[in-house]
# Entry
Amino acid sequence: MTSAPTKPQKAQAPKTAITPTRAENYAEWYQKVVRAADMAEMSGVRGCMIIKPWGYGMWELMQRDLDRRFKETGHDNCYFPLFIPLSYFQREAEHVDGFAKEMAVVTHHRLTMKDGKLVPDGELEEPLVIRPTSETVIGEAMAKWVQSYRDLPLLINQWANVVRWEMRPRLLLRTAEFLWQEGHTAHETKDDAMAETVRMHEVYRDFVEEQLAVPVIMGEKPAHERFPGAVNTYCIEAMMQDGRALQAGTSHYLGQNFAKSIGIQFQSREGTQEFAHTTSWGVSTRLLGALVMTHADDDGMKTPPRIASQQVVIIPILRDETQKAEVMAYCESLKAEVQAQSYGGQPVRVKLDARDLPGGDKRWDWIKKGAPILLEVGPRDVAGGQVCVTRRDQLSAGKKFLARADFVAAVATELAAIQQALFDAALALQKTRTVTDIKDWAAFEAYFAKDADSSFVSGQGFVRAKWAGDPDSLAKLDPLGVTIRCIPFDQDGKEGNCVLTGKPTTQDVIFARAY
Amino acid sequence: MTSAPTKPQKAQAPKTAITPTRAENYAEWYQKVVRAADMAEMSGVRGCMIIKPWGYGMWELMQRDLDRRFKETGHDNCYFPLFIPLSYFQREAEHVDGFAKEMAVVTHHRLTMKDGKLVPDGELEEPLVIRPTSETVIGEAMAKWVQSYRDLPLLINQWANVVRWEMRPRLLLRTAEFLWQEGHTAHETKDDAMAETVRMHEVYRDFVEEQLAVPVIMGEKPAHERFPGAVNTYCIEAMMQDGRALQAGTSHYLGQNFAKSIGIQFQSREGTQEFAHTTSWGVSTRLLGALVMTHADDDGMKTPPRIASQQVVIIPILRDETQKAEVMAYCESLKAEVQAQSYGGQPVRVKLDARDLPGGDKRWDWIKKGAPILLEVGPRDVAGGQVCVTRRDQLSAGKKFLARADFVAAVATELAAIQQALFDAALALQKTRTVTDIKDWAAFEAYFAKDADSSFVSGQGFVRAKWAGDPDSLAKLDPLGVTIRCIPFDQDGKEGNCVLTGKPTTQDVIFARAY
# Structure
C-alpha cells in the first residue's frame, strides 16, 4: 500500500475563543473575557479601570432600570461632594470598629513648577478624603434638612464614583475607583426604616434576577460581617461559575446609631425631640464583573438581553462589491423591522455592523461580546428571503436558517427565552454546587481542603450548614479562606449541630469562598 | 370729627418672594433664588455644592436629552479614571501657555491614627491629580486603541465629575467640583474633525435654545481666549439678566497638536503613519446657574417646561377633613388625565402635592421652584368641575378658572407656549441690551464705566463692535473687567474702525463682562 500524497492541512480553528479556558485557569480566563468582550481594561493609573462602550452600555441599562425602581419607590436623586473633610472621619475612627483606612487623601490644591518639575503646592489646612461612601457627608446635610416629622421620610439616592484604595485590584470586581449608587434615607420610626431596608433589598433581588439573570440568595449578614455601625445588614449573594460567592448588593438598617453620632433629630408628632432611624443601600459596577463570572463561557461573554445595548446584530456577508448595494438594502430594512418589535416594553436594540472587516471577524467579535442574537446575511439569504441565525447561548447548536418574517415575528420571544435560559443555567449551577449534607468539621474541612485557585475544576461551592453563632468559632475558617456569606431567610428550623463547634442549633448559614 | 378707632392692620404680604430683588442686589438675589427654588446649596466642604432634587432633576433631563443627541450623532459613552498621574501634566506645563495650576492633588492613600488624631499616611510614589478635564487620560487610551484608519473616527463621550480649585466659588456657576460631559473624538482628516467640531457646536446651540429656552450667540473665540492647545474654539454665549455673558458650551478643534504630544497615530489608507485630528467639547452643571440667571424673577425660579421634573403641580385646598376624600379623589383622577397627555413626545410630568401643609405655603413653594403650571383644587372646584390655573410665567395675570376638560385638552399647548414665552423674553432682553452703535474708545469706555455690580440697573449688556485683532490692544479692556466673548458667525463684512485701536477692520466681535 502506497501512502497518498499528504495534503497541506488547513490550520485548525481554535476550539475556543478564550485562552486559557475556565478549567485551565479561571482567574486568567476572567481577565481575558473582560478584555475580549471589550467591556473594560485597566488604565495607566494604578488600580483604576476604563469602562469601555460595551461594558458601559450595560451599566447604563442597569442604571436606567434601577433608577426607575428607585423613583417608583419615592426616592429623589441628589449630588453630594466628592470630598469629605478629614475631621468627619475622626469621630468614626474612634467609635467604629471596622473603620476602613485605605482612602485617597487630597493634601494640596495646586501644582507649581520647581526646578523644571511640577510639584504639589498650596497645602490644605484640612486634608480632604475622596469619598469611599457618603454616609457622613449626606448625614451632615440630613441633620440640617430634617427639623420635623413632616420632613420625613427623607428618601435620597446618589449616582457617583467612589474610591477605596485596593492593595490587590481586580478588573471590575475590585478597583480603586468604581461607580455605584448609594441610597440614604431617614425615617420617623424603626418600623418605617426597617420596611425601607427590606423594600430596597427586594428591589435589588428582583433587579439582579430579572435584569441580570443572576440568581441570588437573600439573607442577613451575621454580626461580624455587618456594615460598620449597622444594626442589620441584608445582602444578596450570587454564586460565580467557580463556586465562589459574590455579594451583589446590600441594604443596611442603621438604627439610630448614625443619627445620634451626626445629629439627625426631629420634632415628633407628640412634640418631643427624637433621633431619626436611617438606612443605606448600594450596588456598584462590580455587578459587571458578576455578569461575566456568571454567564461567560470559553468563547467569551454572554450578555443577558435585558442589559445588552445591542440585542440583535446584523452582519452583512459580502464576497464582492457588486453584491453590496443589494445586501445592505436588505440588512437596512431587516434592521428597521426588528427595531419595530418590542421587548421588555422597549424597541428591540439592533445594530447593523457595517465595518470594513471580514464577516467572520465580525462574527467572532460579537460572539466574544456576547450579543444575544447574531444574524448573518449574504446574497443567498437575500435571494431566499431568509436570515442565518446564531443564538449566543446555543453556540454549539450552530446556525439556523429562518424565513425573515418568521424570525422578525419571533424575535421578542426569542430574546425572552435567552434571558430565561441564562437565568436557568446559573440557577442550576447554584443548586448543583450547594451542598447541604455536611454535618461536622471533618467533612467541612475536607470539602474546602482543595486549592482555592482550581475551584472551577474542583467543583466547590456553597455549603449550607448549621452554625451556632459563636464569634470565637470563626477563627477555624480563616486557614480555609472561607467566610459566612449570610444567614438565608429561608430557614427550615430543624435542629442540628454547628459544623464549627458541634453545639446544637437550628440556624442554617451559607459558607463559601468569596470575591 | 372724631377719629375712627384704629383697626389692627393685617401684616402686608411681601411684594416679592425673593429679598433682595434683582434691582437691589443682583448677586445676592441669585444666591437667594437658587436656595428658595431648592436647587442647590453650598456644602460644608469648601467650594463644593450639594445639588438638590429640584436642581438635579433638571440636570437629569438635560443629560437625557443631550445623551440622546450624542448617541444619534454616533458617540459611545465610556468611563475613565478620576485620577491623572502628575507626570501626565509635566509635558503640558512645559508646552501649554494657559496651563491651569489650581487642581486637587492626592498625595496619600491611607489614614492612620497618631496620638489620637487621624493623619494622612502611605505617601504615593507619584501624586495623583483629580481630573480638571480628561484630555490627557483619554488621549493615552486613544493612542493605544487607534492603530489604523479603520479605528477612526473614534467618538467618545464621558459623563463625570471634575475638580478645579476655585478661589472665589459661586454656587452652580463656579464650584470646586462640578458635573459635566466631555466629548473626545479622533479623526482621519482635518475636514472630518472640523465637521465634528461644528456638528457638536450646533448640537449645543439647539439643545440650549430648545430645551433650556436660553438664546445664544454662536461664534469663535479669538486666539487669546482659546482652550489651551486648540486650533479653533467655538462657543455659545448667552446673556444673563444683568447683561453679563455666560459661556454655555464650547467645542474645540485641536488639530494634530494633541495627537502629536500624546502619540495618537494611525496607518492611513495609503499605508503611511499619520497623526489623528482630535476634538473635544463639553457642557456642565453651570448651565443650571445660567437657567436661573436667564429665567428667574423676584418671585423665584421659572423652570422651562422641557427640563422641569414636574411640569404641572396639583395642590389640594382643604379647609376641613370632611372635604378631604372628595377633593383628593378629584385631584388623583385629574393627575391621571394630565399624565395621559403628551408633551415633547413624553407623558406630561405631574405631581400631586399631598404634603401636610397649608395650601398657600405649598403654592409659594412651587412658585419659588418655578413649576410651569400650578393647579389649585378646592371643594368649589370639585363641585364646578373646574381647576384654578396659575401660569408661573404670567404670575401677575393671576389665577384663571377653567373647565377641567378644557384645561386637560390644552395642557400640552400651554406648556409649549410657556417654553416659547421664556425663550422670547430672554431673546428680547438679549436684543435690547446689545448695542451696535459704539464706534470708538470714548463711547466704549463710557458705556462700561459704571460699577459692574449694579449692572442689572444700569442696563449694560453686549457691545457688538469692530476689533482689528491686535493682541496688544486687549490690555485696555482689563480695567473695565470686559472681555471679548466671541467673533460671531454672522458677520456683515462692512468696514469700520476698531474700538480699541481705531484701525480699519471688517471684523465684528462681542464685548461684555462675563461670568
Observations:
- The longest strand of chain B covers residues 117-130.
- The CA atoms of residues 239 and 245 of chain B lie 5 Å apart.
